[in-house]
Amino acid sequence: MAKGDPGVPTRGRRAAPRSKQAASAAAGDPELVQLLTAEGERIESATGPDGTEYRVDFTDEEYRGLYRDLVLVRKLDAEATALQRQGELGLWASLLGQEAAQVGSGRALRTQDMAFPTYREHGVLYCRGIDPIMPLGLFRGVDQGGWDPNEFKFNMYTIVIGAQTLHATGYAMGVAIDGKTGTDDGEAVIAYFGDGATSQGDVNEAFVWASVFNAPLVFFCQNNQYAISEPLERQTRVPLYRRAGGYGFPGVRVDGNDVLATYAVTRHALDNARLGQGPSLIEAYTYRMGAHTTSDDPTRYRIASEVEAWQAKDPIARMKAFLTKQQIADESFFTEIDEQARTESVHLRERVLNMPNPEPVTMFDHVYPHGSPELDVQRAQFTKYMESFEGSAH
Amino acid sequence: MSRIKEFNLPDLGEGLTEGEILAWLVKVGDVIELNQPIVEVETAKAAVEIPAKWAGQVRAIFHPEGTTVEVGTPIISIDTDPGAGPIEESTTGAPADALPTPSAASLAAVEIAPEEGMVEPGLIGGAAPGGRTAVLVGYGPRTTAAKRRPRKAGVPAQATAAPAAPVQAAPAAPVQAAPAPVAPAPVVAPVSPAPAVNGNRPAGGAVLAKPPVRRLARDLGVDLGTLTGSGPLGSITREDVQRAASGATAAAEPLTVAAPVPAVASFGADREQRIPVKGVRKLTAENMSRSAFTAPHVTEFLTVDVTRAMKALDRLRTRREWRDVRVSPLLLVAKAVLLAAKRYPMVNSTWAGDEIVVKDYVNLGIAAATERGLIVPNIKDAGRLSLRELADAMTELVQTAKTGKTSPANMSGGTFTITNVGVFGVDTGTPILPPGESAILAFGAVREMPWVHKGKVKPRLVTTLGLSFDHRIIDGELGSKFLRDVGDFLADPEAALLAWT
Ligand SMILES: Cc1ncc(C[n+]2csc(CCOP(=O)(O)OP(=O)(O)O)c2C)c(N)n1
Ligand SMILES: [Mg+2]
């Protein structure tokens, strides 16, 4: 199981510090499953729209582990943004604000589960145990992503909006056909996508196929309120999670800035899938605090007060407040984590700056698994061409 | 590694060629940290802050604020080891306090690649204007001189095309004296003859200009077709447009890094000054005469006691959630117009010849006097905004207009306009309709005046509203009712709100 996976039963479990009967979660918003308020108050349990009760039961160590994940993921992301501004990456899609949605769901995955990301899932990638430098190579243009999707059970980043939901559906159908569902240690698949993607034909097709073939798939929609500059009201008239009903599977909206609730909801949905109970949709309600990508200027289409309102719901601040109040962590712990994040980001920077440019001829390497005669001819021609320059190795 | 490092303006957004230095956040001598924001740069896509790539001390800043800098050009140099003692002249080429110039080495690296002339500009993989390589979207990074390696002897210099392309049985490359083709090295004859570049303009071709330059030209009302480009392949540069807009002669002056010089008022011997009509002035003139002589205008006036409204504003200002919001009387006027327009939608319409287009949305224009002249940016679908959102949108609109950054999109599509002539201290006016709109409201100064209030003459805060409307669409009755509603709201906003919403 992944390092720091808080799903492992361990000794010394801490009961939820506040024993509040929360029939439904977040005050004022009956639709939202929440276990940790923006102020850092713990809610013992929360009930989803279909009556499912969600709760988590973590050890202190696990709580601290989640906090560390959140901080590291944010810091590494900020470093990548800086590197783009300094001309070292061509582009970067920041996850700022969406850390809890990604860490909560990423840590809920079991080792055997397969994930299909978009281009923003650096936090999930981190939770899968992949070297965080991998997406930087992609956006630096020196490789195509570089990790082995089968080894880490994390597919390549997908830029074509929504396409990965179909890939995930096909994969999940395969898992079912292979008979790998139906038991506690069955396999489940998760597909990440955004609010904007829900308007794509691909995503709607994936909903239909996953539903009628009862695929072991969790559709995980990070509703960060924008598709580049298009606000949510240009995508939907109903809360996104309710779309699931029309396709015939359950949907739930979770506070995507609450790492605990996101973990609980995702774990539950994955377990249902692995037990053969079919797909479900999770809408992680969150906010993209930064620009869509480094090429974008959000001040042109949204007002500062909106950003400020979400700032108050920051996923890390509320976790810190909770850890402090419950004396699960103290100042020295927070300082240590900040220091660790700083060291790791400096390390990341150095490695990025030293990433070698690939030899041009390597572009032929991964076109086909076993090459092709036509490709061999092209490679030979190209090699000759490169050798025609002075100072070339040959 | 050298101690002094120069930072080149990177391509900040997938294929951009230049950026404007908006503001320096550091100055020469400052000690800075890694990733500390050093400069704000605006590109065609976004205004962004650039974080420092190295910690150290700022040694030189090469471009002042307001300059447009090509991607790849050094903008700042940083001493990465300021504690190591003074720097010898020879290591930098210039003392820190002299007029800073980037080192020769880094300038060489941004030199424009030799014009190939053999590959059609803009073809994918081919050389594009400015020595860039055309990629699928936009233009990619420069093919810098420094990156080009010389070919080994006996290899045709033009073999730049994609290697996978079939070897063409084309006539030998014409410029090659003895082009013994090195088979099977892919040699491709020129795809097409070089476009005729006669110094300035491609023969017969369309005008060459980058999208941001086109946009600038549109903003400034400059017709690209009338300009002679000074850029690569005769393309029109930002400076060409700015020069045309500022009225300077087209004769090439040396480009300076300073901000464009504004046209200076100068009287000749005849004590007359001739100002070319162009840019915003020209646009304004065209719009105003078109509107004045096509739409039959009627103007009505209404004087209102706004004392209660001003008190309501004060109460608003003291509320916690409104503390940091700019609240002005104009906000209430805007609200009044939006509410009244809901009650009388015909006021928010366009005369389109054989039909009248009535709009369900109000794109509320606010006339603003700027350095560039009169502009009328509008708030899109303002009727859907809460009062707070409206206040924020108005503040933003004004600030953007002040900094001259209003985008063309924000100036088009207006459906109803308010002109706040009161800020100039006058009572009212007979405004002319922006083309395509059917009504415009002038909001005069709010003054303390003797007014009959509850049967007694009292000093009250009073203002005069002037409403001009298109008499083809709006009859006197409708215009009056609308104006009356606006007035009623301003006389007693709370009561109007309760009554209407
Ligand atoms: C099929 C397709 N259409 C358009 C685009 C351009 N595009 C890139 S990101 C994006 C918005 C996606 O928004 P959302 O699904 O909400 O994800 P977010 O970026 O907010 O995480 C669009 C339209 C694309 N990449 N693919
Ligand atoms: Mg989105």
UniProtKB/TrEMBL annotation, chain A:
<dbReference type="GO" id="GO:0009083">
    <property type="term" value="P:branched-chain amino acid catabolic process"/>
</dbReference>
<dbReference type="GO" id="GO:0016624">
    <property type="term" value="F:oxidoreductase activity, acting on the aldehyde or oxo group of donors, disulfide as acceptor"/>
</dbReference>
<dbReference type="Pfam" id="PF00676">
    <property type="entry name" value="E1_dh"/>
</dbReference>
<dbReference type="GO" id="GO:0000287">
    <property type="term" value="F:magnesium ion binding"/>
</dbReference>
<keyword id="KW-0670">Pyruvate</keyword>
<keyword id="KW-0560">Oxidoreductase</keyword>
<feature type="region of interest" description="Disordered">
    <location>
        <begin position="1"/>
        <end position="30"/>
    </location>
</feature>
<dbReference type="InterPro" id="IPR017596">
    <property type="entry name" value="PdhA/BkdA"/>
</dbReference>
<dbReference type="InterPro" id="IPR050771">
    <property type="entry name" value="Alpha-ketoacid_DH_E1_comp"/>
</dbReference>
<dbReference type="InterPro" id="IPR001017">
    <property type="entry name" value="DH_E1"/>
</dbReference>
<dbReference type="InterPro" id="IPR029061">
    <property type="entry name" value="THDP-binding"/>
</dbReference>
<feature type="compositionally biased region" description="Low complexity">
    <location>
        <begin position="18"/>
        <end position="27"/>
    </location>
</feature>
<feature type="domain" description="Dehydrogenase E1 component">
    <location>
        <begin position="70"/>
        <end position="355"/>
    </location>
</feature>
<protein>
    <submittedName>
        <fullName>Pyruvate dehydrogenase E1 component alpha subunit</fullName>
    </submittedName>
</protein>
<keyword id="KW-0786">Thiamine pyrophosphate</keyword>
From TrEMBL, chain B:
<dbReference type="InterPro" id="IPR023213">
    <property type="entry name" value="CAT-like_dom_sf"/>
</dbReference>
<dbReference type="GO" id="GO:0005737">
    <property type="term" value="C:cytoplasm"/>
</dbReference>
<dbReference type="Pfam" id="PF02817">
    <property type="entry name" value="E3_binding"/>
</dbReference>
<keyword id="KW-0012">Acyltransferase</keyword>
<keyword id="KW-0670">Pyruvate</keyword>
<dbReference type="InterPro" id="IPR001078">
    <property type="entry name" value="2-oxoacid_DH_actylTfrase"/>
</dbReference>
<dbReference type="GO" id="GO:0031405">
    <property type="term" value="F:lipoic acid binding"/>
</dbReference>
<dbReference type="InterPro" id="IPR004167">
    <property type="entry name" value="PSBD"/>
</dbReference>
<feature type="domain" description="Lipoyl-binding">
    <location>
        <begin position="4"/>
        <end position="79"/>
    </location>
</feature>
<comment type="similarity">
    <text>Belongs to the 2-oxoacid dehydrogenase family.</text>
</comment>
<protein>
    <recommendedName>
        <fullName>Dihydrolipoamide acetyltransferase component of pyruvate dehydrogenase complex</fullName>
        <ecNumber>2.3.1.-</ecNumber>
    </recommendedName>
</protein>
<dbReference type="InterPro" id="IPR050743">
    <property type="entry name" value="2-oxoacid_DH_E2_comp"/>
</dbReference>
<dbReference type="Pfam" id="PF00198">
    <property type="entry name" value="2-oxoacid_dh"/>
</dbReference>
<dbReference type="InterPro" id="IPR036625">
    <property type="entry name" value="E3-bd_dom_sf"/>
</dbReference>
<dbReference type="InterPro" id="IPR011053">
    <property type="entry name" value="Single_hybrid_motif"/>
</dbReference>
<dbReference type="InterPro" id="IPR000089">
    <property type="entry name" value="Biotin_lipoyl"/>
</dbReference>
<feature type="domain" description="Peripheral subunit-binding (PSBD)">
    <location>
        <begin position="208"/>
        <end position="245"/>
    </location>
</feature>
<dbReference type="GO" id="GO:0016407">
    <property type="term" value="F:acetyltransferase activity"/>
</dbReference>
<feature type="region of interest" description="Disordered">
    <location>
        <begin position="81"/>
        <end position="100"/>
    </location>
</feature>
<keyword id="KW-0808">Transferase</keyword>
<dbReference type="Pfam" id="PF00364">
    <property type="entry name" value="Biotin_lipoyl"/>
</dbReference>
<dbReference type="InterPro" id="IPR003016">
    <property type="entry name" value="2-oxoA_DH_lipoyl-BS"/>
</dbReference>
